[in-house]
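User: As part of a screening pipeline, I want to sanity-check one entry by hand. Below is the sequence and the SMILES for zinc ion. Please return the complex as structure tokens so I can compare it with the automated output.
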Amino acid sequence: MLALGKLLEMTLADHEPAAKIQLTHEGARLRWLTEGALEVTPPADADSGLDLLLSAGIHGNETAPIELLDRLLHDIARGDLKPRARLLFLFGNPEAMRRGERYVEQDINRLFNGRHEQTSGTEALRAGELERLAANFFAKPERTRLHYDLHTAIRGSKIEQFALYPWAEGRRHSALELARLHAAGIEAVLLQSKASITFSAYTYASLGAEAFTLELGKARPFGHNQAVNLDLLEARLRALIDGSEPATEPSPLDGLQLFAVAREVIKRSDAFQLHLPKDIENFSELPQGYLLAEDIAGTRWVVDEQDARIIFPNPKVQNGLRAAIIIVPADAERLG
Ligand SMILES: [Zn+2]
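Assistant: Here is the complex for your manual check:
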């Protein structure tokens, strides 16, 4: 196997390879760009026209998707998986991965779309670097641009595998991409309706890619991910990489649950209190009239939406950031 296929080992060892470029037997080119970043270029006569960015480890302790990218890279480096797409593999937060922690100083996934310029530290620098790597990768004209940013969640979820689909002015959410996600085992999609500061929001809104944050189960240490079943996703990624993706079925969205953001609960002060059990699962239902949160100066967050559910409750975020999202069912009428 080519040494550059061991990107994960190199990243965990904080090791820079001597040879930055290697070719597979079939002529695919692997190029090490910087820590945790590897570009794969297929032979020109095999190129499918797809530019596929796969990122994991944006949160350093979310190991199942990191291990998935590692498997794909090993197979490419061995010649067992023959790429026909251009690929960029990114391990998002190497220092946090080495420590086995979500982040070191700041959550990288709140630092994109320029937010990193307003702060400092290792994660701010890395967010800027990830933006440049993604922008360079997606700079080629007339290519299909697709980004999956792979995560596992802090908490359990009533819906195990789901996606967040970013929003941008003038763009419509793609029914084709939703069908592709559904075929990859994703059970629900949250359609965003405003700009955001996550990595997938950056590649979607600023680089014109179709882009998704995928939540794939609960975070566990390396080697303990047997309960996270990524078989369908892995099969779909392999097919996107080697150009063998089957056509999507006639009524592909059957059974895929769509949700829209009703409100983001923003924490304003240290007095913020979230009235939910610590171990509440994502997608838990919220009854109408429920007092969800309280904050400084008598601020009250009461659920007035019908069929509301909660995702990403986290009262420990910094003041000014979102401490939970209230979501409601959405329909497919407004898809492009
Ligand atoms: Zn994550």
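Points to compare against the pipeline: The radius of gyration is 20 Å. DSSP finds seven helices and 16 strands in the chain.
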